Structures are given as structure tokens and as C-alpha cells.
DNA sequence: CTGAAAGCGCTTACAG
DNA sequence: CTGAAAGCGCTTACAG
């Protein structure tokens, strides 16, 4: 493996200075068209590529973005929430389209993750993605902000949290799906999913849910709420607890994965979905469509979300103003809530 | 945003030379223990991080690996094959565990992807991941090899292809799942999935399938084979074509996604799985377990695969010898083949 | 339009 | 154990 060519080698071969090579290769208008083309030809023949380390060092930026994924600590490696994966896909594309590279990393709370990438100039900005139990990170987020790190969070915008958020309107999503359930005639309800400050996204969905329950004139004190993280198993366990008592007409789950577990629990009791109990999820992951009972759920447009995240982070990097942004959710009605209507919207 | 501290700032504050700071921060045994600790303390207080661009430039390597994902061109962004995602997860973890960063990129054939990362010193090595229609890339792969780029492919090892492969034994997987079907008493078979050189993984599964069919004494010329790429829709369409004729007892699908589509097609004809037609998939993706009819499939251990890919790429980078490696597949029996036995293996 | 030169922030022989 | 110095391969004022 012969050592790689440098701009000096090209310069020598082209009979020009190294500066000119650098300019030519970056399409500077300062260099003569023919010279530029000659240089480019030689560079291509030699399979020369600008050394990013040198170029980044000199330019003091890396042309790369970092994506920090926060997983639920309990979830199995091979069982990453498909919603995040979908986001990963769209973020990757949007990043590439903007001419940036993407560094991906899964984080767990113990790591000294904060700022690492940006401080070491490996990334110009950070995207934080995870079901928002950001309370644990709050200190680190403020630290990031203090240091002037450019970062964006996916999740519920919240004045109390440091940094700028882009997310989907969880409250509205909770409202819409619950309204649908009420309109279908369901009268007693349970909710599965963490519904406190540590999980602002789930909390938003829960709040929307409760608001509709109250508006519809039901006794909110009769609503059962069980905590669960976003896994099938956690949903299964929570649902089993709910089913020990008198079972509700409808169970609203804070995520599709939770809903999958709830459906398994309901079946294990010899009950049928939606005949005995209606179940709805949230996220519109792929499974929700192909599940034994196609799931009524709320779709968050990951395509748009990824583009928004990237374009706004880029603005931040370029010192342009950026504000919180809330995307509208979209109700996807399938069979699990008992209306019999099937939609093949998206995946 | 004040400008970042450099090793010179630390040196100044610690009253030592910049060389000593650099050594201390990289835990060189050459520096006095107390000096080292003093320096580290200061660095931490200042939230100093070594500039990776400078350090990489000097060291002539980047401590990062690049993962190039090749998608089927037709598949929707939000519908990335879950198998790859699972691999992504384990590769990310293994990379981090080895102290490397991971650059992720989705490739499409038009891009001048080859070598970009390694040539520009942004990555020390490449992992190529995709359903192996590597024929299209063959030229580029040879080019990579010629340039001395360190890369590894996920997929079927094949003497005719440039580069080293790590993959799962597709032939054996095809053999096992077909043997299972035969043992269950199925007597007429169809196969859905590209079965030619352009898709060596699917081809391996198909060859294993055909071998068993022949060994079992069935007329191989009666076997129907329809091409399909790894999407639900493609599987659906192929199955619909098959169902126009006399339908087989069992349909072997080259991937779970294809199998999901086949099941939908069968249902749309008013037939039942497995009562009327047995269906099996390949990959053991999450959906295969939660599907309306849990799918009999072949599991590829993505956890081990990711670790193998990373550790072997690292060997390649360190100029240690690396050879092709074939992992054994694992049959997962669920309900879709008609034996009624349910396994909750893994996800 | 072009070239000579400085300098981005490190790591690591080299000398002590 | 420590420091002065070279140099990794670029980009970009500066001067012409």
C-alpha cells in the first residue's frame, strides 16, 4: 500500500503551487479554468482525496454532525425502538444531502458523553434523540448550553429545559386518539406509560388523554394509569396488572411497543382485541401495521422530523436564530380500536 | 462563546511544556504521576478536549470506522430492513467498545462512495452492509482492494468477489428450514426471492432449499420461483402471481419482509396460514414474532455478527490476517409452518 | 490569476 | 522524567 498522494504531489505534477491545487480542488473562482481542470484530472487519476483531518483542522470545523441516541437502559440491543431507527434513517439522509457526515453513537447515562464530539471538533453540532427522560441529563444539557455547544433535542419543547427542541405535539396526539376512542363509544379507560416529568413525551400524551376523558364527562379518578417504558415486555406486565381488576373498555398505550405487549396480555387472558378491549398505540412503527390486530396509532412524520432536525441544527451552526418547533401528529385508524376500518397509510 | 482551550493553555496553567501536557493526557508512563494528575485536573476544569482533527492529522489515523449501508433502491426511507438496523445497533456498540467512533452513511449506487472515507482519512476502515447485490459494486470493490483500503463485507463469502466477507451460512439456513417443512409433510413448494448471482445471500438460501427438495425426492422442476426484493410489497406481488396457479403447500421466502407480504396475499385470497399454505421467512426480525401468524424463520445472530465485523476490521487495520467467516444460522420454529409449536426465542 | 508563507493543534522523535 | 522543535496536510490572508 503506497502512501497517499498529497496536494504537493499534485502540484508538482501539474507544475503549479500547492496553493493553486488547494484552490482548484475547492472550486475557487480564483483559479484559471484550464488550470483547474488540469489539476482535477490529475487528482482523479491519482485517486487523490483531500485529507479531512488537515482540512478540518485548518478550517476549524468538521463538516460532520453527531447523533446521540438515548436508549431505554433495559431494552435489548437488537430491539431498538423502530421509531428511532426510522428517525436515524431520515437524519442520515438529510445530513448527507447537506454535505455533512454523520457520527452515530448510542449513549447510556454513565458515559461522559456530553460535548465530547463537539469539544473535540469531531462534530459541529449534536442531535439528541431518545424518549425524553431528559431529567437525568438536565445538568449536562445546561453544561452543553453554557459551553456554547450547538445541539438540538428531539422531543417536547419545554421552557424549563435547556436547549431547543423539535418534536411532535404529544398532547394533541393524545387528544386525537382519545377523542376517537370516545366517539366509538368506549366508556372506561386505562393508560399505560410513564406519565411524569421524567418522560415529557409520554406525559404529553397522557395529558391529552386525560383532558378528553374529562371533557367527555367521564370520572377521571376511575382511570387506571400504569407506568411502563417503551418495550413490549414492559407493556405486557403493566397490562397484566390492569387486567387483574375489572378490565377497561379501552387501553391507551404511550407507544406501539407497549401496545404490542398489552395485546399479548389481553390474549393471554382469553380476551379479544378489539371485541373485549380496544387498544391503541403511538408511533406507527412497522409492526403496528402487520400485527395480528393492526393497531390504531398516531403517526409522527419521521421524514419531515429528520429534515427539520438537520436543517435547524445547521442554522444553529451558522448562528442563525432557531426556535422550538412542534409538528402536528396524525391519527392512523386501524382495527385495534374496534371500528373495523383499515388504513394502509405509510408503513 | 469563548474560544476553546488548547494544550498550550493547559501547559501555561500547569507550568509545564505543551509536550508534557500531551503526554499526560494520553496517559504516557513517561510523565510524573503527580504532574500528570495536576494536568488532568486542570484539563477537566477547563473542559478541555484533545482536538481530534489535529491529533488524527498527526497520528495519521482517525480512530473511526465507517459503516456503509446499501439499501434496496426501491425501499421507503422509513422502512429500512429491520435486520440491518439490528446490525447497526450491534456494530455501533462494538465500535464504541473498541474506542472507535462510527460514521454511518446510506449509499446508493450513483454515489462516488467508494473509498471516500478512507481516502480522506475520515475513517480507518469500512464495513459494507446490504443484501448482497454486490455485482453492481464489483468494480468498485476491486478498486477499494487495489488502493489498500481496509474493508469488510457482510454477506456470503465468495472467492469470485474481492474483499473479505463475514456472513451467515445462507445455504445451511435454506437447508434447515426446508428440511423442517419437508418433515412436517409439505409436498409442493414455492420460493420467493431473487435467486441469482446478483443476490448471493438469497441465492444461497435458494440453493439450500432446492438441495433439500431434490434430496427428499420431489420433482424440482415443479418448484415455482418468483423474484422479489426484500420488501413486504414485493413479497405480496410475487405471492399473488404464485397464487394465480395451483397453490403450493409451502412458500419459502428469502426474507421475513417478503414473508409478511406473502401472508397478506394468501389471506386476500381467502386462504389461511398455515392451514392452507405454510409460509416461512428468513432473518427473525421483530415483526416475525408479533405477526398475526408468528413466523417460522431463520435467526442470524446480529449481536455476534456486529462484534465479529468490528473485531475483524480492527485486525485488518492493524495488519493482522483475517479470513472469511461463516456463522451458523439458527432455525426458529413458530406457527406459520403448521406445527403449532411456539418459540419466543430472542426478540 | 498565482505563489510563498503562516498556522490550525496536536504527537513524537531527539536531546538532555 | 521534561522541553524545544519538527511536521502531519491542508486553507487562506498577503503580496504581487
UniProtKB/TrEMBL annotation, chains A, B:
Keywords: DNA-binding, Transcription, Transcription regulation. SUPFAM superfamilies: lambda repressor-like DNA-binding domains (SSF47413), Periplasmic binding protein-like I (SSF53822). It comes from Glaciecola nitratireducens (strain JCM 12485 / KCTC 12276 / FR1064). Residues 5-59 form the HTH lacI-type domain. InterPro entries: HTH_LacI (IPR000843), LacI/GalR-like_sensor (IPR046335), Lambda_DNA-bd_dom_sf (IPR010982), Peripla_BP_I (IPR028082). One of its GO terms (molecular function) is transcription cis-regulatory region binding. This is Putative sugar-binding protein. Pfam families: LacI, Peripla_BP_3.
